[in-house]
Amino acid sequence: MIELDSVAYSYGGGELFSSVSLSLAPGSFHFLTGPSGAGKTTLLKLCYGELTATSGHVRLFGRDTRALGRDGIAQLRRRVGVVHQDCQFLDHLPVAENIALPLTVSGRETAPDDLDALLGWVGLRRQAGQLPPELSGGERQRAALARAVIMSPDVILADEPTGNVDWDMSQRLLTLLIELNRLGKTVLIASHDLALIRAAKSEVEVRVLRLKDRRVQAAGAHL
Amino acid sequence: MERLRRMLGLMAGDPQADRVVPPTGFTARLTVLSAAAMAFLAVFALAMSLATGRLADRWSQELARTSTLRISAPADQMQAQTRAAVEVLQTTPGVAEARPLTADEQRALLDPWFGPDLPVETLPIPKLVEIVEEGAGYDPAGLRARLQAEVPGAVLDDHGRWRDPLLRAAGRLRLLAGVSMGLIALTMAAMITLAANAALAANAQVIRVLRLVGARDTYIARAFVRRFTLRALSGAAAGTLLGALAVWALPEADVAGGFLTGLGFQGWHWLQPLLIPLLAALVAFFATRQAALRSLKEQS
User: Fold this and answer.
1) Which residues contact B28 (CB under 8 A, 6 or more apart)?
2) Which residues does A contribute to its contact with B (CB < 8 Å)?
3) Burial, B180: exposed, middle or buried (Cβ in 10 Å; 0-12, 13-18, 19+)?
4) Greatest CA span in chain B, whole angstroms?
5) Is the predicted pLDDT of residue A221 greater than 50, yes or no?
6) Is pLDDT of B104 > 70?
């Protein structure tokens, strides 16, 4: 699905990673941990082609992102659902239209029943007509998750999806991500929330990767 | 053809895609206002271009085929010299007609300066002969030489001395009107480019979100291009209507003024201003598209 081969990335004159390699197999569930500033968000951005590696190769569905133009990246991004910590929406459009946005930009029709089912799945039926600024932190995260999965992507990348919500809400979000994984989706979550990782481990087979010393390592059993 | 198809597709619209860009903002008003103002000015430039064209045509048509022979001679020789001059003219190739002006016609010419009761018959004023040309016209140098030999008091005025500068002036005015139209189009393109750049900068978050969900640059650009093109079209349509009304409301030209033909449109020329909104939309389309694609490239 996603493969990083000896990837290095420099930013502002310093090297954030050197020789990072990882591979996300279809249907796998990964956590990416590490201290703040280690580069978890950057690594995720490299995974979906928003950033280009300084050296090495990033392959998205077998295609080297460096060889793809912006349109090629945009095309592949439709197969990757991304959830950011600071969920960004089009604030002038209602929640339902924001969730359907990936379909809109790809020129596909939005089936009202499917959209309603998705809103029900994330518990946002009542908020469908509201504008994003009217949502709470947890509601925004669930709306972002719904938007990330509406195209039925093969991979879901989530950057600190529970960073701004309470424990109950983070459990609810985790449950949704686990459900997606059980449907065969590949999931990669960047998080430093160890309790969340432990909760996930009790439900599905989880691999934990740790960003440390500019490299990705498999985390120990203490997690 | 592809561009035309895209333009027409743009007008047909995609309401759903159109909604991804926030609908309001000062750039909307700026674009509509500048398009309206530029279209208003373009109507006047077009009117001036057409009016000077008519003026030049009239001058060249009315004066190019005629000339005047002025005969100055003592009173007792005037008739003989006039007769001799007419004979010379009638045997000159390229001259269709040579007719001495009557006393009434000469009086009418002097009327603006001396009033209607001037006794031209008793005054030592030159006799005028109107010459109408045919075909390729006559050879002025040859005719002058023959007249000098046979009618020493005759002076040929083929009007070129003062018609040519007038025609040149009319040509320059037409050129100026064309340059004005070009400058108006450039100014509008610059204003719309600025407005589009401002809109793109103000909507950086919208662009980030659209890219995140897999929108191509052409899709994002199209949303902005469609909006700015339609704004320019509506603004220019309003400006053109106001400009046409203003031209229509201009006072009638004074017919007695001779060369004046008025600044307004005549006949089917009234249809020409309809092109202004379409050209404005075309300018907006390419200006916004260029600005959007460049800005998106810089933001990537």
Assistant:
1) B227, B231
2) 50, 70-71, 74-75, 77-78, 82, 84, 88-93, 97, 101-102, 104-106, 147, 151
3) middle
4) 103
5) no
6) yes
Q: Give the mean model confidence (pLDDT) for residues A146-153.
A: 88
pLDDT(A99) > 90: yes
Looking at residue B258, its pLDDT comes to 46
Phi first, then psi, for residue A107 (nearest 5°) are 75, 20
Sign of CA dihedral A201, A202, A203, A205: positive
Kindly report the pTM of this predicted structure.
0.69
Closest CA to A142 of A77, A150, B80: A150
Our count of domains for chain A comes to 1
Q: Is A102–B208 a contact, with Cβ atoms under 8 angstroms apart?
A: no
- The neighbouring-strand residues paired with A4 are A22, A58
Question: Is residue A51 in some structural domain?
Answer: yes
- Position A104: which residue type? T
Is A92 inside any structural domain? yes
- In the sheet with A2-11, reading across from the earlier edge strand, the strands are A14-24, A2-11, A55-60, A63-64
Which residues lie closer than 8 Å to B3 by C-beta, 6 or more apart?
none
Domain residues for A131? 2-218
> Taking 90 as the threshold, does the pLDDT of residue B237 lie above it?
yes
Find the chain B residues whose C-beta atoms sit closer than 8 A to any C-beta of A: 16-17, 19-20, 22-23, 205-206, 208-219, 300
Residue A188's CATH number: 3.40.50.300
Inter-chain touch B214–A89, beta carbons under 8 Å: no
Nearest to B150 by CA among B91, B214, B237: B91
Cβ pairs A/B, distance under 8 A: 58
Nearest-by-Cβ selection for A105 from B22, B214, B300? B214
Confirm whether A211 is domain-assigned.
yes
CA A100 to chain B, closest CA, distance in angstroms equals: 10
pLDDT at position A177 over 90? no
Select the highest-mean-pLDDT range: A194-198, B37-41, B53-57, B170-174: B37-41
CB contact at 8 A, B170 and B59: yes
Looking at CA atoms only, how far is residue B17 from chain A in angstroms?
7
CB contact under 8 A, B212 and A82: yes
Closest residue by Cα to residue B151 from B220, B94, B69: B69
Domain boundaries, given as residue ranges, for chain B: 2-60+164-299, 73-152
